[in-house]
Specification:
six-stranded mixed β-sheet; 12 strands
Length: 315
Amino acid sequence: MSEPPGRVCPPRYRYGPAALAAATERAAETLYVIGGLYGNRPALDAVEALAAAEPRPVTLCFNGDFHWFDVDDAAFGEINQRVLRHDAILGNVEAELLADDEEAGCGCAYPDTVDAGIVERSNRIHARLKATARRHPEALADLDELPMVARYRVGDLRVGVVHGDAEALAGWRFAVEALDDPAQRPWIEAAFHQARVDVFASSHTCLPALRRFDSADRVRWVANNGAAGMANFAETRFGVITRVGVTPSPHPGLYGGTAGAVYLDALALPFDAGRWEREFLANWPRKSPAHVSYFRRIFQGPDYAIERAHATVPR
């Protein structure tokens, strides 16, 4: 029996750690990894403001799902144009905007633990976004040029940027539950080795997690920023991005660590929540699929504690 749309991880999503090992490496003094912007223009304003306040040049890498709620033409065009001034890779949202068929739905590859209603509503959200995207062929042409992975060197730290996990665009093995599962440790260690990176920076799963993995020769990290454009913790309204830098962050970090002389931080991304609420409701009023699935999370946060995001990984 075939999987229904929204739970499918298409074969074209699969790249494997070797793709990161082979990717062109770009140098950065400070790297922001911004996953899950979800069409939130006030959050994009906030990212640019944080970067402007840094003492050194900042490389911005949007690691997928920068579109989602932006189904009106003005917002879609603006998000696409502003994001693609910077580095970016595909998320499943963008990958499915480029697909000719609807087989994968939203392309999230939701696991069985996610309610079927959420999956069905996500497919409906994506269908509406795809209708908008088809009115912007120039934007789709630009998205079609994006890779699925990116590679950076920050100081002496090798950083692999993905949307899902080391294997696939919509992979869930960098979700907090998988990172904390001892049975997954051999796969994670092999992925670091095969990709030849010290840090995996991801998003996709919508809940942030920073985990340290010590091996005989070096310290390695998985940094999942959760979502830049939505609340990530209970009773909060800010997004989260990942910062990797050769100098300490000038902005207060939520949590973080170091790898040699390089600093790794999860930064809060406070944005104009009132403006975002107005823009969201203009496109997604009460009883719409996005309102049913996301309104409570956007404005009250998920049932997820910040302590869970940076729990210590058993050695």
